[in-house]
Design a protein that fits this description.
Layout lengths: L1 E7 L2 H8 L1 H5 L6 E3 L6 E9 L2 H16 L4 E11 L7 E8 L1 H14 L14 E7 L5 H14 L6 E3 L1 E10 L2 E11 L6
Antiparallel strand pairs: 1-3, 1-8, 2-6, 4-5, 4-7, 5-6, 8-9
Length: about 190
């Protein structure tokens, strides 16, 4: 099964991030917008895991979660990967709470080293909002990104209290996610 570790987001944050679609939609550009129920903050993508690997991942996540206390974040910036000149992934990022989020993300990645696929990029806390599937009219999309950045109002502070392990099932209507396990930050691991 395809598995990733992530942080769930509250409905107010998801609703606010979902409004970016209306701000950034460009007629004639093919963008696969992430469904609101699928917006999350990915810590690490592990790929296809066996049941034994999932159990090992869960034990590692429990240990990392126990070592971190809850903290607050705010989605207070937006951008694109690999950059705004050639946007492929549209994201909302975190500056407020970034230090704690990076510590948690790096802790998760270190604990899961050797389980599933290795991440070769530095951890950058963000929620993916859309994936650009065509390269036509990227100039218009860049302009809309600049306008959206200038007018972006940060989401309310959100308390990060848990990490989850998700299974991802790909279908013709897009992915669906199922929670395979969850662990509270600061709670003793069992």
């Amino acid at each position: 099964m395809r598995v990733f570790a992530a942080i769930p987001l509250d409905s107010a944050t998801v609703q606010r991030l979902g409004k970016l679609k209306a701000q950034l939609d460009v007629p004639g550009i093919d963008i696969a917008w992430v469904k609101p129920e699928n917006i999350h903050l990915t810590l690490v993508f592990l790929g296809d895991l066996t049941d034994a690997d999932c159990k090992q991942a869960g034990q590692a996540l429990a240990s990392v979660a126990a070592a971190h206390q809850p903290f607050s974040v705010q989605f207070d910036c937006i951008g694109a990967f690999p950059g705004e000149r050639f946007p492929r992934i549209i994201w909302a990022g975190i500056r407020t709470g970034a230090e704690q989020m990076i510590a948690l993300g790096e802790g998760v990645r270190a604990a899961l080293a050797g389980v599933g696929e290795e991440e070769d990029r530095a951890f950058m806390p963000h929620a993916t909002i859309g994936r650009v599937r065509s390269t036509q009219k990227t100039g218009e999309l860049r302009e809309k990104l600049v306008q959206a950045q200038a007018g972006w109002e940060a989401t309310p502070l959100e308390k990060i209290t848990s990490v989850r392990l998700y299974e991802s099932h790909l279908g013709r209507l897009g992915p669906t996610y199922r929670v395979a396990g969850g662990w509270l930050l600061g709670a003793p691991s069992k």
